[in-house]
Amino acid sequence: MSDINYISSFDSTNLYAKISLGESPIANLIVVHGLTEELDDYDEVTAFFNEYDFNVIRYDQRSHSNTSGIKELHERIDILVEDLKAVVDYVKKQLTGEVFILGHGVGGSIAAMFGIKHPDEVLGFVSCGGLSPTGQPLLRDDAGDESSNEEEDKGMESVQKQRMIQNFRQRLHEINIDYKQFTDCVLIMHGGDDKVVSSDDAIQFYKEADTTHKSLRIYDGLNHELLNVTSYRGMLLSDIVNWLEFELSCVEQDNE
């Protein structure tokens, strides 16, 4: 069961959000979705983390699904980062326990930028398929060679999404994002067969992040939609839970 809420951002834009509570919550997990996604795409992910007693907070980013806003997201990345800040502040005010952020694709990049701009605001980050400022988008070789109309439409959608990602990455480069300024705990996950964002982006993030609490996991044979691959979802989400629980145990040890 998820409670629907609207979280007011810095400019009074209402971010459509759903909050799903664990039975005996041990921490809070904020989910930041990627381009062309919406919070409902993470229903099964939410249910999984709830079973492990994590509160899950999801929200539709601007111009996505139930949240209005700017169309050209790459032009105002700073706004998206401040939207996430509003969500973090809301969670800290309304819920108890440590806060983690999980971002997918562009959502992973926004989460990383949040960590750079607002260090030590949350306990840790999970980045799935995030892109770096200096990497290159991977246009599918077969995008325009589909035989059926349905597959051709999917190919065109892929090309369009690639162009959006390319614009987003260019903007990241222009605002001079420096992963060396990232100092928080982070788990970086990427599909080894990702045709949307190269796994080299994940490797760059891992190498440059200025923190000793960082882990990199490249999953051979998996693509960009790491959290939506039914056959492997349980394994991947278990990896995340184990990492979250480890970071929580480190905090408990420090407090003893």
Automatic annotation (TrEMBL):
Domain Serine aminopeptidase S33, by residue range, is 24-130, 152-228
Q: Where is this region: Disordered?
A: 136-160
Quote the InterPro entries the UniProt record gives: AB_hydrolase_fold, Hydrolase_4, MAG_DAG_Lipase
Listed transmembrane segments: none
List where Acidic residues composition bias occurs.
143-154
Pfam entry (one): Hydrolase_4
Q: What is this protein called?
A: Serine aminopeptidase S33 domain-containing protein
* Lineage of producing organism: Bacteria, Bacillati, Bacillota, Bacilli, Bacillales
